[in-house]
Amino acid sequence: MTAGASPTGTPARDRLPDGTEVFTKTLAGAPPQFFEREAAGLRALAAAGARVPQVLGVRADRITLSWVPQGHARTAATEEEFGRELAALHRTTGEHYGAVDGEPTAYLGACPVDLTPTDTWAESWVGRRVVPLARRAADEGRLDPDTAALAERIDAGRLGPPEPPTLVHGDLWAGNRLTDPDGRSWLIDPCAHYGHRETDLAMMQLFGGFSGRVFASYVEELPLAEGWRERVAVHQLVPLLVHALLFGGGYGVQAGDALRRAAG
């Protein structure tokens, strides 16, 4: 769930009959495959070596995960280690951009997004997500139609040099990273897919909560293509448009500003 977004389920700490502590999220009337897609993302991240809660059970209206205790303050050491771990995750690549298992249904927070597998990053990010979300925002009065139309002018060159489809968390704001009592970082609530690694880094900058040490250790471990800072706006478009759809107001203004920068 992105910062300020609609709930992705009511959380509750519970115990199984054998005494194992678990974390269960429920959502009455959840959209189709809502929790199934979260489970698929967690399993994909786990298979790539990321530290995530174990999926213990999933149904149409709930997901049950292993409990992750928290309690360690974030320090220079924890931030640097997280940067290295994120770089390690981003070394996992796939054949196509989009869903981890070919299923196009996905949710960013409570908003549906299209992760239909594609051959190019531009089609996946701009064609399948930015343009449809911008059109919907205009239709719902969240974005000026002329500004929304800028989405269709975003050139593939604005997305940076070609890179292989990279496994990303997909919703990496600070609240979706936990730190356990040993200082280890855990990832939760993903919209995991094969995309562009700069989207995770752009999302981390959108709402703050990550120190410069995270980015410095990441770049040291896995350097970014030249000009990545200038591409932050285009890689923030999807979460900004999602927030504009859910809340309007200032998020619509931010999304419009990002669209103007991205379209040049």
From TrEMBL:
InterPro entries named among the record's database cross-references: Fructo-/Ketosamine-3-kinase, Kinase-like_dom_sf
Homology family: Belongs to the fructosamine kinase family.
Source organism per UniProt: Ornithinimicrobium kibberense
PANTHER family the record matches: FRUCTOSAMINE 3 KINASE-RELATED PROTEIN, PROTEIN-RIBULOSAMINE 3-KINASE
Protein name per UniProt: Fructosamine kinase family protein
Keywords for this protein: Kinase, Transferase
UniProt GO molecular function: kinase activity
